[in-house]
Amino acid sequence: MDDAKADATYWLTRFAFLRLLGLVYVVAFVVVVNQWDPLLGSHGLLPAREVLDDVAASHGRGLLTFLRLPTLFVFDPSDVAFRIGGYVGLALSMCVLLGFANVPVLAALWMLYMSYVHAGRTFYGYGWEILLLETGFLAIFLVPLGRLDPFPRSTPPSPIVILLLRWLIFRVMLGAGLIKLRGDPCWRDLTCMVFHYETQPNPNPLSWYFHHLPAWFHSFEVAFNHVVELIAPWFVFGPRRARHVAGGLIVVFQVLLILSGNLSFLNWLTIAPALACFDDGLIMRLAPGRMREWLEMRSRDAEETKARAIAVRALAVVIALLSINPVVNMLSPRQVMNTSFDPFELVNTYGAFGSIGRERYEIVLEGTVDEQATAQARWVEYQFKCKPSDPVRRPCWVSPYHYRLDWQMWFAAMPGAGTPLWLVRMVAKLLDGDRAVRGLLAHGPFEDRPPRWIRGRYYRYQFTRWGEPGWWRRTLVGEYLPPLSADSPELKDALATAPEW
Predict the structure, then answer these.
(1) What are phi and psi of 62, to 5 degrees?
(2) DSSP string, 244-294
């Protein structure tokens, strides 16, 4: 392929983008299949059906209700529908990962995942959910209408959609940078990374080592963060070489975040639109020699149809109009992060870690089979699958997978957060021996027989120092939940009064 022509085409860019998007969709739907029932099923911690039935009772189950709350499950909120949707989404995701993507497949994936996000409430209230929806929607306009072909001759990658992907990564990165500058002062005095590795939601094993790097290196990390999030985004629209450098910095930054923590599939997904900074001329240098000739043959005389050209231009107009509110939000001194301004989450505003915790607190749940819940009873700790609990247990490495309960436990442990309803329900279900909810936790005590009592204790956690045994040191701060039994008045009161979040 002629070098000048390759510099202006995006066949390999699209190929890499769709494979990575397929991987993220696979992970997202594996999470649905594994975790939806105990978290949001009809007998889960926050049944999605409760809200969907309330909406239907007020507005019916028709098209207008769907437009108000875009989720297919407003028509059928049964556990069977949720389960079928999860497996259909997983199968379609595998198709995209393997290279078979067209408009119906990607449109179905976008619609299905949006349906889970809008039904999932608290457990689906993260920024990467709307980022996946926005990225997945743009991907629909990159693929052929019907053919399942990784390199369809009749559908060359649209430069306009590539530009819209750059607009997306621009907002993701700049929004994250601005929220930091306007938020915690440690981002301005370059000290945030001194605390971040220890206090982030779910550290991984390398987080311990990153935490113990010298203070000057942490200051360098924050400065590098500002370069990537505040300066590099402007060059994604720049000259070719500048665009390549900006895209490279963003990708390297996301890889470093993957290595240093468990932020679900956020960083993997962020790399996907960043790939739009690269073109065939650059990517071809990494491909085998014969790939150039093969791609030249496949792309020769490829031309966008008039119908697709009209659709892509209409998309650009819609994105431009819907971008007004996100841009106003980014420019506002009261910037809000990870927010949608339209019901379908087509164009959103993003941000992450506007504030950094200085101390880490954890809720530790303990159970006992003893008759009386006294200090002399034999209390045994529940272990979560990923979040810190046993101080000697090595931190997990789970990204791009995501344990949604563990993440919510991090929020619940923040000082002054209160005790949410889902946590009280979890205690009640553990006391009742609910096997599905017990499966959300790590293997351990009370697998075959539920405890008589459960209590919650509140600890401060700190990474151990060099030479100390284990991974964490912890200090008991106080009681989080008093001892509760299945028939205790305190449990009934908590179930009736706890906030839902």
Answers:
(1) -95, -170
(2) HHHHHHHHHHHHHHHHH---TTHHHHHHHHHGGG--HHHHGGGS-HHHHHH
How confident is the model over 390-435, as pLDDT tens digits? Answer: 999 999 999 999 999 999 999 999 999 999 999 999 999 999 999 9
Q: SS3 of 170, please? A: helix
Whether the Cβ atoms of residue 335 and residue 173 lie closer than 8 Å to each other: no
Q: Give the span between the Cα atoms of 3 and 356, in whole angstroms.
A: 46
Cβ partners under 8 Å of residue 192, min gap 6 = 180, 184, 186, 218, 222, 353, 356
Could you tell me which residues come within 8 angstroms of residue 439 by beta carbon, excluding any fewer than 6 positions away? 38
Three-state secondary structure along 19-82? HHHHHHHHHHHHHHHHHHHHHHCCCCCCCHHHHHHHHHHHHCCCHHHHHHCCCHHHCCCCHHHH
> What is the Cα gyration radius of the chain?
24
Q: How far apart are CA 475 and CA 35, in angstroms?
A: 31
Round to whole Å and give the CA distance between 172 and 352: 9
Task: State both tokens at 175.
Answer: 């929004």
Please say whether the beta carbons of 151 and 157 come within 8 A. no
Strand pairing category for 472-484 and 453-463: antiparallel
Q: With a cut of 70, say whether residue 6 has pLDDT above it.
A: no
Residue in 339, 371, 355 with CA at minimum distance from that of residue 414: 355
- pLDDT tens for 425-460 read 999 999 999 999 999 999 999 999 999 999 999 999
For tokens 């739009």, name the residue.
Answer: 276
Bridge partners, residue 153, by sequence: none
Question: Which two structure tokens, joined as six digits, stand for 313?
Answer: 């231009």
| Helix/strand/coil percentages in the chain, nearest 5 | 55, 10, 35
Encoded tokens for 308: 């697709």
